[in-house]
Amino acid sequence: MAKFEDYCNSYKHLQMQRTDGILEVTLHSNGGELVWGAGPHRECGAAFGNIAADPGNRVVILTGSGSEFIAQESISHPGITAPVWERLLVHAQRLIYNHLEIRVPMIAAINGPATIHAELGLLCDIVLAADDAVFQDAPHYGEGLVPGDSVQVLWPLLLGMNRGRYFLLTGQQLDAAQALALGVVSEVLPRAALLERARWHARKLLLQPPMTVTYARLAITHELKRLMRDHLDYGLLLEGLAATEYFPGKLPRHPDDAQE
């Protein structure tokens, strides 16, 4: 088991606070909008593992800082080797598998554009979005990468097979209204009202007995877990294989990799 006080301040890119069992996790870089890179990639998976192992968490709210969910990145791709991809693959597996191992309901408050790793919000059980949110899979096919790190599972599941494949191969953007109409999100609100609405849902979820709360999450994520177990590793291997051709050589270390 994990204890909140042992991990809540352990992560540079995740701010955590908990009240009455409701854990709020805010993704950020230096207190501002999150810039995705090696640090967040490594930290999010590890943090989700801690959250999953802490029985004091009864509902999780996941949001971003400022006006973006995740829409910026700082990653260099001049070269990928097999050893480098192995390290990235391990973090990519933990990112998704540990997210789905969280045993309590998750609420996403997508506070703005989610063009990078939007699946971190969309894998949650209740998905709320700001009215200026935009959804896209920006970092993969358009930049020479196979969309294989869970997006190949999630987007066809959400949009339907043909629309999902179109979305991944064309770099299509969906605004908040389109996302609502297509069932990608369940509510669209002004950003100022988003977090309080998420808290309202969290408090309402906790009106049920604790085992009902936990087992409801397990029941409704069971199929997602099966799909990811069936397809995530294969997709990551294809992504890495293609990357070694497109980005041959040695990948310079990201500053956030210094501790690895």
What's this entry about, in short?
The chain has nine helices and ten strands. The chain has 260 residues and is of the alpha/beta class.
What does this structure look like?
- The chain is an alpha/beta fold.
- The chain has one domain (4-248): 2-enoyl-CoA Hydratase, Chain A, domain 1 (Alpha-Beta Complex).
- Helix content is 46%, strand content 15%.
- It is built from nine helices and ten strands.
- It has helices spanning 4-7, 38-52, 82-101, 119-122, 151-159, 161-170, 176-181, 191-205, 210-246; strands spanning 14-19, 22-27, 35-36, 59-64, 72-73, 106-110, 126-130, 134-135, 174-175, 187-189.
- A six-stranded mixed β-sheet has the order 1-2-4-6-7-10, with helices on both faces. Strands 3-5 form a two-stranded parallel sheet. Strands 8-9 form a two-stranded antiparallel sheet.
- Helix 2 runs parallel beside helix 3 (82-101), helix 3 runs antiparallel to helix 9 and helix 5 crosses helix 6.
- The protein is globular.
- The model is unreliable at 249-260 (pLDDT under 50).
